[in-house]
Amino acid sequence: MSITVQDVEHVANLARLELTESEKERLAGQLSAILDYAEKLNELNTEGVEPTSHVLPLHNVMREDEARPSLPVEKALLNAPEEEDGQFKVPAVLE
């Protein structure tokens, strides 16, 4: 597949990029080379290969979500600068 300078100009316009003429020509060549290389993937035999979003199998490594005892309120508020009614007291954010 060949990328033209007009294609580069169009993409640069969408991305709000200002490119010089030499940059446009250089990018057209580079992008064409990238697409040509990507087209080589069509030569691979993928018969019997399942589509996947990741090359390695993914497993959830999170532990089960189970209720456990936590810190008592008094201990949690021990180092709080200010406390009111068993809660942290912080400056008001909204008026």
Automatic annotation (TrEMBL):
Keyword set includes ATP-binding: yes
One of the GO biological process terms: glutaminyl-tRNAGln biosynthesis via transamidation
PANTHER family: GLUTAMYL-TRNA(GLN) AMIDOTRANSFERASE SUBUNIT C, MITOCHONDRIAL
Family membership noted in the UniProt record: Belongs to the GatC family.
Keywords (A to Z) from UniProt: ATP-binding, Ligase, Nucleotide-binding, Protein biosynthesis, Transferase
Claim: Protein biosynthesis is one of the keywords in the record: yes
Database matches in InterPro entries: Asp/Glu-ADT_sf_sub_c, GatC
Subunit annotation: Heterotrimer of A, B and C subunits.
Family annotation (HAMAP family): GatC (MF_00122)
Enzymatic reactions: L-aspartyl-tRNA(Asn) + L-glutamine + ATP + H2O = L-asparaginyl-tRNA(Asn) + L-glutamate + ADP + phosphate + 2 H(+); L-glutamyl-tRNA(Gln) + L-glutamine + ATP + H2O = L-glutaminyl-tRNA(Gln) + L-glutamate + ADP + phosphate + H(+)
Protein name: Aspartyl/glutamyl-tRNA(Asn/Gln) amidotransferase subunit C
Pfam families xrefs: GatC
EC number: 6.3.5.-
Domain of life: Bacteria
Role noted for this protein: Allows the formation of correctly charged Asn-tRNA(Asn) or Gln-tRNA(Gln) through the transamidation of misacylated Asp-tRNA(Asn) or Glu-tRNA(Gln) in organisms which lack either or both of asparaginyl-tRNA or glutaminyl-tRNA synthetases. The reaction takes place in the presence of glutamine and ATP through an activated phospho-Asp-tRNA(Asn) or phospho-Glu-tRNA(Gln).
Organism per entry: Cohnella xylanilytica
MF GO annotations: ATP binding; glutaminyl-tRNA synthase (glutamine-hydrolyzing) activity; transferase activity
